[in-house]
Design a protein that fits this description.
The complex is a heterodimer of chains A (343) and B (252).
Chain A: H1 8-31, H2 37-62, H3 70-87, H4 95-122, H5 129-145, E1 147-152, E2 155-160, E3 172-176, E4 181-182, H6 190-208, H7 211-221, H8 223-228, H9 233-256, E5 261-262, H10 269-282, H11 287-303, H12 311-326, H13 329-334
Antiparallel strand pairs in A: 1-2, 1-3, 4-5
Chain B: E1 4-13, E2 16-26, E3 31-35, H1 42-49, E4 57-62, E5 65-66, H2 72-77, E6 80-82, H3 95-102, H4 111-116, H5 121-138, H6 154-166, E7 172-176, H7 184-201, E8 204-209, H8 212-218, E9 221-226, E10 229-234, H9 236-240, H10 243-250
Parallel strand pairs in B: 3-8, 3-9, 6-7, 7-8
Antiparallel strand pairs in B: 1-2, 1-4, 4-5, 9-10
Helix pairs in contact in B: 3-5, 3-6
The complex binds adenosine-5'-triphosphate and magnesium ion.
Adenosine-5'-triphosphate binds at residues 13, 16, 18, 36, 38-44, 85, 210 of chain B.
């Protein structure tokens, strides 16, 4: 058989290389005490945003559909995860396991939302997804704002718009309408975030280098041709979109479990756009690009606090530099192996 | 029974009758040409055969099974594959992946195996690599398997499209002007390849071509379309000497 050239390996090597190296460096910094508390506080959000960016890249870069409501799925995962951890507090005393179960629940819930949004929209030809996901993000935010969930000895209680239940003795509100959630036990740790990033990378890179991934990219490159070779456009659009939502949900749980108070407004349109910026700057379809962009752009505003006057200026310059780098010959040369096919 | 039976096929776009009352019968193993001047409705016939357009009237049967109303991907799985007049490759994917994508239903594993790369993943991917390379070899593209499809020269892009269509293991292969934009030598080679493919893979071929002389060389039977209607049919010798066909082509 002819020797095959597989550009795929490089994606795995670079992605895992960056993440594992960064984890080790940060752990060393923590052990030696060379870390500021504000940076330390950002470690979990960075992990969450990396997962957000990588998962959104699946929809925007790999599938080629614009989504403007990725934070909506994050929100569903965040509040779903909070309810799950609170409800399971007695059943699963071991915190890391409880976090993992909550993430799975948050991901599942977000995935169901992905199906609900995706089924009607992705059947249509044309760019309707952007507008519908935009609305979805807003709707989720508004629903969580009027959502009341409490728990007492009798179990969980839900109501919308106003609190229509009385909690029994020792009962506790989990989600309290516009006030949101407070008094959450912080379960997320940097290591938990790191593991979620690793799992996300492994699963998404595996998916890309499989028949499923090829089908999704074929739909992106030429939907009519994809159909002509037996690929159902709707099926693979939906699949990529739902997988993307599931990971956003898990990122949401991770993120929420890092704070003692969480409100719906944290997952607004700006957050969706921020994640989209990570994806575009990191390069559409480029998984490790998303990792770097998400990490850099999350820590940068904090790092730049030192030079407060020039903060926004430097931030803007960095954005432009990343964009230029993305379209430059330099990037191609750095990735020479990938681009050997260019004559 | 003929493999492909088209009866009284017609389609209108608004007021325009693009194809009208077209009937065709293609026997298994045949190499048949569909010719006609610009805008005659040839591509529209392909679009109806493959489910891209739904005919307004008439029927299409492949080995007795009705194709009208089925989606393009269903029709592909029933055994009809095609190429496009304006090339439609998966331009950002590699040459190899273009063909492997078309093996989607032939070599399968589950979504879980996709995500975890477990089970049959490795073995089946290797099988697909081998199958895809076999097909690419026929078109002289095996050496270029790692090229991004968009970076192939034009003539090779056309060949890759045929290779991709063949990878779906079709019974019926529809080629829409496969030699468009090629020089006479490339065209000659391509026609030989098409003959070879037909024998090697036992596939029935229906071919659209602009150039009558060219199809006359390889086709056994021709249908001539003009303004959406059948103008003539028969062996190349009969058709090329048909005065109506000559007139239609010269535009007198
Ligand atoms: N989707 C469509 N909507 C409206 N009109 C269409 C559509 N598709 C094709 N037509 C019209 O149908 C007629 C036949 O077009 P078709 O592309 O089938 O011709 P053709 O024989 O393939 O021509 P060519 O040799 O130029 O490729 C043309 O008048 C064309 O404008
Ligand atoms: Mg045409």
């Amino acid at each position: 058989m002819k020797k095959l050239f597989s550009p795929g390996r490089r994606d795995y090597t670079i992605s895992f290389g960056i993440v594992i190296l960064a984890y080790l460096v940060v752990q060393a910094m923590i052990l030696t005490g060379n870390i500021t508390s504000s940076f330390k506080g950002q470690l979990v959000p960075i992990c969450a945003y990396i997962v957000m960016a990588v998962s959104l890249n699946l929809t925007v870069g790999v599938l080629g559909e614009l989504s403007l409501g990725h934070a909506g799925f994050m929100s569903v995962g965040a509040f779903g995860g909070i309810v799950a951890t609170t409800a399971l507090a007695d059943a699963i005393p071991f915190a890391p396991l409880r976090l993992a179960v909550a993430m799975a629940f948050g991901g599942l819930l977000a995935g169901i939302m992905g199906v609900i949004v995706g089924v009607p929209v992705l059947r249509l030809k044309g760019d309707y997804l952007a507008i519908v996901t935009l609305a979805f993000g807003q709707i989720i935010m508004n629903i969580v704002n009027v959502l009341y969930i409490g728990r007492d000895a009798r179990g969980l209680h839900f109501s919308l718009l106003e609190q229509r239940f009385e909690l029994g003795e020792g009962g506790k509100m989990i989600i309290n309408g516009p006030i949101g959630v407070s008094g959450v036990s912080k379960l997320s740790t940097f290591t938990a975030g790191f593991l979620l990033v690793l799992a996300t990378l492994l699963l998404i890179l595996n998916l890309l280098h499989s028949r499923t991934g090829r089908a999704v990219m074929a739909v992106r490159d030429n939907a009519i041709a994809a159909e002509s070779i037996g690929i159902s456009i709707t099926r693979y659009k939906l699949l990529a979109f739902v997988v993307s939502a599931v990971f956003a949900g898990m990122a949401g749980t991770l993120y929420a479990m890092n704070y003692s108070t969480v409100t719906a407004a944290k997952f607004d349109f700006n957050t969706s756009i921020l994640v989209l910026v990570f994806v575009v700057l990191g390069g559409l379809g480029n998984i490790w690009g998303s990792i770097i962009a998400a990490a850099l752009l999350t820590v940068l505003p904090e790092l730049l606090r030192a030079v407060n006057d020039y903060r926004m200026l430097l931030y803007a310059i960095l954005l432009i530099a990343m964009m230029l780098f993305n379209n430059s010959k330099l990037k191609e040369r750095l990735l020479a192996g990938r681009h050997r096919e260019v004559e | 029974m003929a493999m492909l039976e088209v009866t009284q096929l017609g389609i209108s776009f608004g007021g325009l009758r693009a194809v009208d009352a077209l009937s065709m019968r293609i026997e298994k193993g045949g190499l048949v040409g569909l010719i006609g001047p610009n805008g005659a409705g040839k591509t529209t016939v392909f679009n109806m055969l493959t489910g891209v357009y739904r005919p307004t009237d008439g029927g299409i049967r492949l080995d007795g099974e009705n194709l009208v109303g089925k989606t393009p991907h269903e029709i592909c799985r029933l055994g009809v594959a095609r190429t496009f007049q304006n090339i439609r490759l998966f331009s950002r994917m590699t040459v190899l992946d273009n063909v492997k994508t078309a093996l989607h239903h032939e070599t399968t594993y589950t979504l879980a195996e996709s995500l975890l790369h477990l089970g049959g993943y490795r073995k089946k991917e290797r099988e697909m690599d081998a199958r895809a390379l076999d097909i690419l070899e026929v078109f002289g593209l095996a050496e270029k398997n790692h090229y991004t499809a968009a970076n192939l020269p034009y003539g090779q892009q056309r060949k890759l499209e045929i290779a991709r269509a063949l990878a779906t293991s079709p019974k019926l292969l529809l080629l829409d002007e496969p030699a468009a934009g090629m020089n006479p030598q490339e065209t000659g080679e391509l026609m030989e390849t098409i003959e070879l493919v037909r024998k090697k893979y036992g596939v029935t071929v229906l071919l659209i071509e602009h150039d009558m002389k060219l199809v006359a060389g390889i086709c056994e039977y021709l249908y001539v379309l003009n303004f959406g209607r059948e103008l003539a049919q028969g062996s190349p010798a009969e058709v090329l000497h048909n005065p109506e066909v000559v007139t239609a082509y010269l535009g007198e």
